[in-house]
Amino acid sequence: VQLQASGGGLVQAGGSLRLSCAASGFSLDYYTIGWFRQAPGKEREGVSGISGTDGSTYYADSVKGRFTISRDNAKNTVYLQMNSLKPEDTAVYYCARGPLNYYPLPIDLVAYWGKGTLVTVSS
User: Fold this and answer.
1) Sequence-separated (6 or more) residues with CB below 8 Å from residue 55
2) Which of 35, 24, 9, 17 is nearest to 118 (CA)?
3) Side by side, which strands form the sheet with 77-82?
4) Which residues lie below 8 Å from residue 74, measured CB to CB, with a gap of 6+?
């Protein structure tokens, strides 16, 4: 099982970025993929997730209406479209999977973490 997050970068407040999470070693059809983030000096927190079975999605209150999660099963990749970015969105973003198809995916049940990608939002 491997997860590779990419797409981070430096953007001004109000801008957009799209993160990608390329999965290998398993099919997205059977697992929820979650996006998490960790800001400097803060604990890692859940941002969003998408179910493997029916594509249901969930979001943290802090990103609702601004972030959109989606998946391309043919590419075995999950995306996180981030719009109207704020400085408080600055963090390292990780994608992750549980050992089973937990939905939502709580952080304490994550079994596999991808390497993070840094998002920096300047004011």
Assistant:
1) 71
2) 9
3) 2-6, 17-24, 77-82, 67-72
4) none
- Residue recorded with tokens 């969930």: 58
Spatial separation of the C-alpha atoms in residues 73 and 94, rounded to whole Å: 19
103 close to 5: Cβ distance less than 8 angstroms: no
Q: Are 37 and 92 in contact (CB under 8 A)?
A: yes
Question: What is the per-residue pLDDT across 81-109, written as a single tens digit (0 to 9) for each?
Answer: 999 999 999 999 999 999 998 999 999 99
What is the identity of the amino acid at 84?
S
The per-residue pLDDT for 78 is 98
**Contact call for residues 21 and 90 (beta carbons, < 8 A):** no
Listed residue (98, 93, 94, 102) closest to 120, CA to CA: 93
